């Protein structure tokens, strides 16, 4: 096979040399270091990554412009434009997920769902699918709409250096537990000392003025 790091066949029929899958592999090679980039088109992968970053930035702007208190029935032109952009962004993310599944496969160690950030992308796309299906049935669940806030996190999966920093931060969180426990005891002890020294000093110290009226 041309790429021994990847699954030989996906969806029971798409081999690595098949035209649709080979094109998908060239697109998704940039975020995955285990794919041999020397055999792939660097320009194609970089272009796909840049387009994905631009769509994520567009999503951040649309989320910031959305006004939930004023756009309840979405009757204004501004809300309809934002809704059209949101539909375009969701379609782009869904197509991106399908391309990655075709290139990497679905289940397995180095397949699509084998990566933690890809599982987050899968959850975001599935939540959007549930949201749009409920809108067609005139059912509105605000809790599902809040999943849109997680969409900017997809940028972490597009920048390899950012992925390294986030993974290092997550790896150091268990080590910070002892530091947080020490800080808690220090603040707790000083809180007890403050209560014992100054407890009741300000009791009944606030009096209204003589000419004070409500």
TrEMBL record:
**Residue spans crossing the bilayer:** 47-66, 87-107, 175-199
Q: Name one GO biological process term.
A: calcium ion import across plasma membrane
Instruction: Answer whether the UniProt record assigns the keyword Coiled coil to this protein.
Output: no
Give the membrane topology.
Multi-pass membrane protein
Q: State where the protein is found.
A: Membrane
PANTHER family the record matches: VOLTAGE-DEPENDENT CALCIUM CHANNEL TYPE A SUBUNIT ALPHA-1, VOLTAGE-DEPENDENT T-TYPE CALCIUM CHANNEL SUBUNIT ALPHA-1I
Q: What is this protein called?
A: (spotted green pufferfish) hypothetical protein
Annotated organism of origin: Tetraodon nigroviridis
């Amino acid at each position: 096979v041309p790429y021994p790091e990847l699954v030989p066949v996906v969806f029971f029929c798409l081999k690595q040399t098949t035209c649709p899958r080979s094109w998908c592999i060239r697109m998704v090679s940039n975020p995955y270091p285990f794919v041999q980039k020397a055999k792939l088109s660097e320009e194609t992968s970089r272009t796909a990554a840049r387009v994905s970053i631009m769509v994520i930035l567009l999503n951040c702007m649309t989320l910031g412009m959305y006004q939930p208190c004023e756009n309840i029935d979405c009757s204004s032109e501004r809300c309809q434009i934002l809704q059209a952009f949101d539909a375009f962004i969701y379609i782009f993310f869904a197509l991106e997920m399908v391309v990655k599944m075709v290139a990497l496969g679905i289940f397995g160690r180095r397949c699509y769902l084998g990566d933690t950030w890809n599982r987050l992308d899968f959850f975001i796309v599935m939540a959007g699918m549930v949201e749009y299906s409920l809108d067609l049935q005139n059912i509105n669940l605000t809790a599902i709409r809040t999943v849109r806030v997680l969409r900017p996190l997809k940028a972490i999966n597009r920048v390899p250096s950012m992925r390294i920093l986030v993974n290092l931060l997550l790896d150091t969180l268990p080590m910070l537990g002892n530091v947080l426990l020490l800080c808690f005891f220090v603040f707790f002890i000083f809180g007890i000392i403050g209560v014992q020294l100054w407890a009741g000093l300000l009791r009944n110290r606030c009096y209204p003025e003589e000419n004070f009226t409500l």
